[in-house]
TrEMBL record:
Matching Gene3D superfamilies: Cation efflux protein transmembrane domain (1.20.1510.10)
Membrane topology: Multi-pass membrane protein
Name listed for the protein in its UniProt record: Cation diffusion facilitator family transporter
Residue span, Cation efflux protein cytoplasmic domain: 212-287
Amino acid sequence: MSHEHNHNTEAIGDKRLIAAIGVNAALTLAQIVGGILSGSLSLIADALHNLSDAASLVIALIARKIGRRPPDAFKTFGYRRSETIAALINLVTLIIVGLYLIYEAIGRLFSPQPIEGWTVVVVAGIALVVDIVTAFLTYTMSKNSMNIKAAFLHNVSDALASVGVVIAGTLILLYGWYWADTVLTLMIAGYVLWQGFSMLPKTIHLLMEGAPEGVSVADIINVMEQVNDVEGVHHVHVWEIAEHTIALEAHVVIKKASLPGIERVKTDLKRVLHEQFKISHSTLEMELDGSVCLDTKQTDNHCSEA
């Protein structure tokens, strides 16, 4: 029953992503046409930003489908890290878009062009409605997924950018301040770059198998050494296999004990690691007296892993 519920939830999530992709693609096309007809660079800038959001939703959808594939002989940990790779692609694309917008805005400073204010206001108003709808479609899923959360935040930023474009169009209509369009383009580009560069380190950190955010190796060792019959812990490695899935490897020095006692220590360690650090996959090598290991079949000079 639980598996069926999870399957239905994923199917609903996919449908929401497809709907969000559809409305964003239509909006992007409308913004580009509107930007060309009106001569507004900020409208085209908002369209490119929106296009990157639509692309990120496509990538997230593909990554979700790939990530559901079970582990196999080729990918023994499964395919869930595909969502992290998707996030990296999305962020790099976002940064490229931001740099391109700055290039275009600087060029517009040296060769200003007339802009049709009403077209800018109307298209940006439509964009604002679509951004709100897309944010609504992705809000629930954003709570448990880094990629979907990034897409959700992108849509919120798009809504703010659309508000800015409406303001720029209004200033052009009322005062003829065409420079407001260029200034807004630079602001949108700056925000896009800030967003991309601020999220990029976390994504690379995960791909580099760095320690999960908020997890200290020193704290892990300290907690493990509090377990009965544990004398010391060393060679600790902790990383995220995928988002929300933490793994650990460690050598554990224990007091001389019977085989049932060793299994008890392993069970206690795995329970503590899961309860306090959310570590769901742990490999523990048990050592005696800090120099020899114990195997489940022999009691001399062999190692046991769990």
